[in-house]
Write a structure and sequence with these properties.
By secondary structure, the protein is α/β, with parallel strands linked by helices. It has nine helices and eight strands.
Length: 220
Amino acid sequence: MAPALIIFDLDGTLIDSAPDLAAAVNGMLAAFGCAPLSLPEVRRMIGDGVAMLVGRALAARGCAQADHAAAARIFMQQYESDLTARTAAFPGVPAALEALRAAAIPLAVCTNKPALLTNRILRSLELEDYFVRVIGGDSLPFRKPDPRVLLALLDALGAPPEKSLLVGDSEVDAATARAAQVPFVLMKHGYHRAAIAEIPCIAALEGFAELPALVRALPS
């Protein structure tokens, strides 16, 4: 039996946005006279929204005394100037989404990135039409890992938690799914900080080419 709904995280799951996020982080750091971070360093900081990313970047460069609100504004100015200059969908994403849509499975996005930016990115990468609903970090009064963000989405689309899936890349996604009692699929290519073996999931996939087959093999 096909899932009632498949929900996807965005950054690190559907798209590799780390290069653009790193460029914006380093532009922000430069504005405060701080040294830049490497791409791998920034990758490990992604996943909890802009405020956490900016705070981690400032702390990593000993700039924690900087005005965090001003730093976040500078980061957003840098990032919004070109959201997809270096960002791309991970290999196999369009083909997997097409296969799932052909199987009549509703698809949605749940991310901590602001909704307006999320929709702009999905449109730019020609992924927007695959999703029946997009929930951003500012769409509701709560965000991941608060399970209410998933439960609100499930309720709006009439999908039981146990018959749905969350596909993500991090500990935050895993914790959200577990609290909402939604089965979780981990994409290994993402921005997780813990070891893959430490992240609870029903499956850990190397890439999106494996997702349709996994969905077809799910028990009814």
